């Protein structure tokens, strides 16, 4: 049973005329008649009685008609659903991002995307780069904003560099000033508020301190971005965070740049190499790259 045959059958049922049915579905009348006969042969029953030129449904035709209409309606619904997805009227994006990117970069971009495509559902997972890479690999995310370089070994991912940002030192205004700029070596002996294990900013900061020949001293450790900033505001210690986050954190934090060469990190968009992101995710990817 072919979809086209059902279309022809419904057209004849509604017009009760083979020629008018053929005109409705834009096919030659002999072709339509041939397809109806093929359908009857496959079903093993006549669908129309053709006595004296009058077209009427047989019992088999009456039984098939509501089913055929339902099949055609479902197919039309499927067509509309796919077109809406293709035209970004519906769909979803599963986006992963580090907490600092969620705080600094994503709000404005997601607002712009939402204004253009209000029917797209946005699902955001906030985690460290290591966790996001794992979620990408198992297919739980469509896109992720991760910190380069990726953990090794890592699954086959395609990455596109998005931005390179400076890291700065933040402190409570109640604490003594650090001067106009601070060197990594100046952090020796200072109490640091440190992110949890597996967090890229933790690894970057600890590696920079060790490169200067000392182990950093932690006043408190284990937090995500909001917790770390809250601990710094409370005067528990200093923290090394992205400039974008520090600039959006308000006047209750003092921001001190790092002296050259300083510390930097590269944020990239990543997705699985073996699976193309959905249409909506590709549109968000374009907006992030064009921002």
Automatic annotation (TrEMBL):
GO MF, one example: DNA binding
Supply the source organism for this entry.
Answer: Streptomyces alfalfae
Alphabetized UniProt keyword annotations: DNA-binding, Transcription, Transcription regulation
Q: Which GO terms describe its cellular component?
A: protein-DNA complex
InterPro entries documented for this protein: LysR_HTH_N, LysR_subst-bd, WH-like_DNA-bd_sf, WH_DNA-bd_sf
Q: Which family does it belong to?
A: Belongs to the LysR transcriptional regulatory family.
Pfam families from the UniProt entry: HTH_1, LysR_substrate
The protein's name in its UniProt record: LysR family transcriptional regulator
Q: Give every HTH lysR-type domain span.
A: 1-58
């Amino acid at each position: 049973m072919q979809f086209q045959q059902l279309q022809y059958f419904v057209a004849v049922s509604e017009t009760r005329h083979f020629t008018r049915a053929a005109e409705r579905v834009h096919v030659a009348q002999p072709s339509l008649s041939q397809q109806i006969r093929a359908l009857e042969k496959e079903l093993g029953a006549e669908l129309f009685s053709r006595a004296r030129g009058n077209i009427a449904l047989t019992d088999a035709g009456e039984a098939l008609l509501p089913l055929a209409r339902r099949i055609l309606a479902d197919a039309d619904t499927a067509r509309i659903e796919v077109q809406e997805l293709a035209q970004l009227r519906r769909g979803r994006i599963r986006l992963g991002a580090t907490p600092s990117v969620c705080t600094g970069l994503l709000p404005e971009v997601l607002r712009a995307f939402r204004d253009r495509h209000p029917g797209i559902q946005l699902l955001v997972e906030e985690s460290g780069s290591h966790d996001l890479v794992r979620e990408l690999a198992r297919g739980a995310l469509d896109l992720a904003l991760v910190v380069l370089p990726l953990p090794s070994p890592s699954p086959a991912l395609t990455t596109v560099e998005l931005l390179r940002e400076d890291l700065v030192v933040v402190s409570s205004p109640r604490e003594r000033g650090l001067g106009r700029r601070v060197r990594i070596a100046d952090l020796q002996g200072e109490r640091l508020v440190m992110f949890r294990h597996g967090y890229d900013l933790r690894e970057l900061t600890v590696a920079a301190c060790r490169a200067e020949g000392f182990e950093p001293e932690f006043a408190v450790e284990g937090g995500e971005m909001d917790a770390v900033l809250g601990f710094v505001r409370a005067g528990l210690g200093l923290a090394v965070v992205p400039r974008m986050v520090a600039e959006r954190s308000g006047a209750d934090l003092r921001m001190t740049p790092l002296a050259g060469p300083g510390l930097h990190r590269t944020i990239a968009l990543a997705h699985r190499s073996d699976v193309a992101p959905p249409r909506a995710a590709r549109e968000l990817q374009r907006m992030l790259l064009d921002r």
